[in-house]
Specification:
CATH topology: TIM Barrel
Mean pLDDT: 93
Number of domains: 1
Bound molecules: flavin mononucleotide
CATH superfamily: Aldolase class I
Structural class: alpha/beta
Shape: globular
Distance between the termini: 60 Å
Oligomer: single chain
Length: 419
């Protein structure tokens, strides 16, 4: 028999402690986002389709991106038990300077298209979090504008070598003069990848108004208000416009870049030089031997070659081949702080986030990027605690198994023979 009594009004009152409603709509929206995927959904609701798809999409069938994300999900962690890690230290030394977290913001072109605050929001959030911010050659905020948004923190500059070399070199000189400490030389873009969503959406730069865009704009008034009431959206460092992003890239990029360009860049750039877009072991070893300061294993977030190697799968082999002292960074597919922890365990010195940052930006400008960083930070800290490590240096390959759904058949067979 259940024992019953009359309801006690005092007990009922205790239950009725309502939270003060959050009146700031942006804050309410962002606080409700617990994962980067949540931010992505908010971003999708608030951003015109063409701009969202330009960010969210990848090349051809988008297999490079889907597989890269899947590879991070196909991680099995191996925690140590009864190893208390009450305080975790997430800071690292990277390329001669500190970062409070093991990730930085990747270079992205045309960032003010996603949300009008663009790079200023990214650089400001990076400054507040103590992590590096990378400005793209195709950025929509000037080198000096980024420096003003992140005056005391670390700024990195991403270089595309263009047909008109002098334009590229001049940008590098300007970034160096503004105190940017690292140059990321992107090498995976001899021609633009086929971004089919952009083609289907008729997306062009500058954006064109069509009947479809106008209908799509109706539920997204704030994006359009920002777009129409803030300075014109254009490349900060290039004058090229007209056509799709792919057509612009093809017109601007030099498909004949080679190791000779590296020598020239070295003359121009006094700081650290990192090659972004490395996709095999041989190139990694060669670049180490050429004396660059580091590499980024990346397939450009799946926006260039589709069915490209999965950077996260390359990582252990590359680390073994280049040794412990060479800086290896990784990007493509990072959506969770646990992805970053897994990458560090398997030998990455540092990681970069592209879309995770842009989803935050589209979801809520500067505060949205702050939210992205906070979500990743808490996921990193929690994963480290649950693994029983208190510093990133304690992470080791034994903490992670990469499940083999997407491993090349030949390699999987060879591994099976050796076990
Ligand atoms: C919208 C967008 C624009 C990008 N623009 C550039 C660029 O101008 N230069 C560059 O080197 N990489 C660019 N990238 C690639 C990123 O630097 C990074 O490699 C990629 O986003 C990492 O994958 P993730 O988005 O899954 O984190 C861009 C990526 C996105 C999503």
């Amino acid at each position: 028999m259940v024992q019953r009594q009359l309801p006690n009004p005092v007990e009922l009152l205790e239950l009725m402690k309502f939270k003060k409603p959050e009146l700031d709509g942006r804050k309410r929206r962002l606080d409700a986002a617990l994962t980067i995927d949540d931010l992505r959904l908010i971003a999708k609701r608030r951003t015109p389709k063409a701009a969202f798809d330009y960010t969210d999409g990848a090349a051809e069938g988008e297999l490079s991106l889907t597989r890269a994300r899947q590879a991070f999900q196909d991680v099995e962690f191996h925690p140590g038990i009864l190893r208390p890690a009450p305080d975790v230290d997430t800071s690292v030394e990277i390329l001669g300077g500190p970062s409070a977290l093991p990730f930085g913001i990747a270079p992205t072109g045309f960032t003010r298209l996603m949300q009008t605050e663009g790079e200023v929001a990214g650089a400001g959030a990076a400054a507040a979090a103590g992590i590096p911010f990378t400005l793209s050659t195709l950025g929509t905020t000037s080198i000096e504008g980024v420096k003003a948004a992140n005056p005391h923190g670390r700024n990195w500059f991403q270089l595309y070598v263009m047909r008109d070399r002098e334009i590229s070199y001049e940008l590098a000189r300007r970034a160096s003069a503004s105190g940017f400490d690292t140059l990321q030389f992107t090498v995976d873009t001899p021609v633009a990848g086929a971004r089919l969503r952009d083609k289907r959406n008729g997306f062009s730069i500058p954006p064109q108004l069509t009947l479809g865009t106008i209908i799509n704009a109706i539920p997204r008034p704030w994006w359009w208000f920002d777009f129409l009431t803030t300075p014109k959206l254009e490349f900060a460092s290039l004058s090229a416009t007209g056509g799709t992003v792919g057509e612009l890239l093809d017109a601007a990029m030099d498909p004949t870049i080679s190791y000779d360009d590296l020598a020239v860049i070295r003359d121009i750039w006094p700081g650290k030089i990192v090659i972004k877009g490395v996709q095999n072991v041989e190139d990694s070893v060669r670049l180490r031997d050429e004396g660059v300061d580091g590499i980024v294993l990346s397939n450009h977030g799946g926006r260039q070659l589709d069915r490209a190697p999965i950077p996260f799968h390359l990582l252990p082999e590359v680390r073994r081949a280049v040794g412990d002292d060479f800086t290896v960074m990784i990007d493509t597919g990072i959506m969770n702080g646990a992805d970053i922890v897994a990458a560090v365990a398997l030998g990455a010195d540092f990681t970069l986030i592209g879309r995770a940052y842009l989803y935050g930006l589209m979801a809520g400008g500067r505060q949205g990027v702050d939210r992205t960083i906070a979500i990743l930070r808490s996921e990193i800290e929690r994963t480290m605690r649950l693994l029983g490590v208190s510093s990133l240096a304690e992470l080791e390959p034994g903490h992670v198994t990469q499940l083999t759904r997407l491993v090349p058949v030949a390699r999987a067979a060879a591994e099976a023979r050796t076990h």
